[in-house]
Design a protein that fits this description.
The protein is mainly alpha-helical. It contains six helices and no strands.
């Protein structure tokens, strides 16, 4: 088939520029009935072009199949990566939910503990204030008892006049009975002065 095409398309070799010009001119002046005059040549060209077209169609189909295969392979890789990312995301989300739940429980426990501590502190403050008041009252009672005991100890085995001189002046005494500044005038001394 190729040999026939070469024989049908044999062109004389051009040796000079005028020969080439003449050839082109002759081709232009010839009638356009080449298709009629060369039916076998057109058939050969048509067949060769049809064969080339079929080859190109096969190449296109193969290329499309390869592209589809590569695309499906890429899609599979992308789907696999997406599945991995989604499963990782879901795992992290579940982990974060569990952590959040445990933190909420810890927070509730801490708040409850803090409330109990605040209540305990307020009770302790109240108890401390009551005990402080009680101890202050006890201290004042003990102080007055101490003064009474000291007075009794000092007054023991002393004369009455000496006892009045050693004792501290009492604030509940009458101002009219005062003889000197800061000292009380005991009733027994006033009685002794009068006698």
């Amino acid at each position: 088939m190729c040999d026939q095409y070469v024989r049908d398309n044999e062109v004389p070799v051009v040796h000079s520029g005028t020969d080439a010009f003449m050839m082109i001119y002759d081709d232009m002046c010839e009638p356009q009935d080449q298709s009629v005059s060369y039916p076998s040549r057109n058939t050969v060209v048509k067949n060769s072009l049809t064969a080339e077209l079929a080859i190109y169609k096969e190449h296109v189909e193969l290329y499309e199949q390869r592209a589809k295969f590569e695309l499906t392979k890429r899609e599979q890789n992308i789907n696999e990566q997406l599945r991995i990312v989604i499963s990782d995301h879901n795992f992290k989300e579940e982990t974060l939910k569990k952590d959040l739940h445990s933190i909420k429980l810890q927070l509730a426990s801490t708040i409850k503990h803090n409330k109990s501590i605040v209540e305990e502190v307020s009770l302790l403050k109240k108890d401390f204030k009551q005990k402080e008041n009680k101890y202050l009252a006890d201290f004042l009672n003990i102080k007055t008892l101490k003064e009474k005991v000291e007075d009794k100890l000092i007054k023991q085995d002393q004369s009455l006049q000496m006892i009045h001189m050693l004792c501290k002046p009492r604030p509940n005494s009458n101002e009219l009975k005062r003889v000197a500044i800061g000292y009380k005038n005991p009733l027994c001394l006033t009685c002794a002065k009068q006698a």
